[in-house]
Amino acid sequence: MTIDATTRTGLCLAGVTLRLGDGDDTITALDAVSLTVAPGELVAVVGPSGAGKSSLLAVAGGLTVPDQGSVTVDGSDLTAMKPAARTAHRREHIGFVFQSGNLIPALTALDQLRLIGHLNRRRTGTRDAEQLLAEVGMAGKAHRRPHQLSGGERQRIGIARALIGGPSLLLADEPTAALDRARSHEVVELLARETRRAAVATVMVTHDTDVLEHCDRVVEMVDGQLSG
Ligand SMILES: Nc1ncnc2c1ncn2[C@@H]1O[C@H](COP(=O)(O)OP(=O)(O)OP(=O)(O)O)[C@@H](O)[C@H]1O
Prior knowledge:
One of its GO terms (cellular component) is plasma membrane. GO terms for molecular function: ATP binding; ATP hydrolysis activity; transmembrane transporter activity. This is Putative ABC transporter ATP-binding protein. Residues 11-228 form the ABC transporter domain. Keywords: ATP-binding, Nucleotide-binding, Transport. There is one protein chain. It is built from 6 helices and 10 strands; from the N terminus they run E-E-E-H-E-E-H-E-H-H-H-E-H-E-E-E. Helix 3 runs parallel beside helix 5 and helix 5 (151-163) runs parallel beside helix 6. The strands form 2 sheets. A 6-stranded mixed β-sheet has the order 6-7-8-3-9-10. Strands 2-1-4-5 form a 4-stranded antiparallel β-sheet, with helices on one face. It starts with 10 loop residues before the first strand and ends with a strand. By secondary structure, it is an alpha/beta fold. The chain has a single domain, classed as 3-Layer(aba) Sandwich (Rossmann fold), CATH 3.40.50.300. The protein binds adenosine-5'-triphosphate (ATP).
C-alpha cells in the first residue's frame, strides 16, 4: 500500500523542556529540544544512558506532557489537548515498537494484528492484517504464536502491529535490543522500508551503532540536549 506523504506533516518538537522529580531532586530530562521528522524519514536517536532518549519518545508519543514547548503530530499540538483528546490522537496517529515485540502470548501472529485492527475498526486508515503480514515477510507464519517465532520474527510482527492503524508517527524504543547482529540489520532495514512505504515519520532510539547505516539521519542526546 502506498500512502500519499503530501497529506501528512510528520513530527515537530519545538523548544521542548521536561523536568522530572521534585524539589532538590528535579532534573531537566529534556532541555529546549527541537526536532522535526518528515513523513517517510527514519531518524535514529543515540546517546549515553540517562541522556533523555526515553523521555523524548514519551513526549513525542503524548505519554508525557512537557513543561515547555510544543509537540505537533500530523498537524495537531499534543500539548494543547485535554488528556482524552491526546489519548485519542495517540491511538489514531502514533504506533509504538518495543524492545522485544511485546506480543500477547496466546494470540497467533495474524490475531495480534486483527485485535488491533478490531479495536481501530471505526478508523479509516486501518490496514489489512494479512497484507501487512506479507509485507513484513511473515505470511507463511501467520498462525504461529509468539513462542513459535524467533526474536527477529516477533519483532517483525511488532512492527506490523504498530503499522496496522496507519499511523503517521512510529516510535521505536531499542527495537534490536534482543536481537543478534544479522537479525538487527534485517529488522532495521524493514523499519526503514516500511517508513518509506507507509510515509510514516519514524523515530528510533538505539544503542546499536551497527544499524545506523539504514537511517536517514542520526541525532545525539547528551544531558537532555539534542545535536546532529
Ligand atoms: N520518573 C522520573 N523521575 C525523576 N527522574 C527521572 C524519571 N524518569 C527518568 N528520570 C531521569 O531523567 C533522565 C533521563 O532519563 P531517560 O530515561 O529519558 O534517559 P535515556 O537516555 O532513555 O536512558 P537509557 O539509555 O538508560 O534508557 C535520567 O537522569 C533519569 O534518571
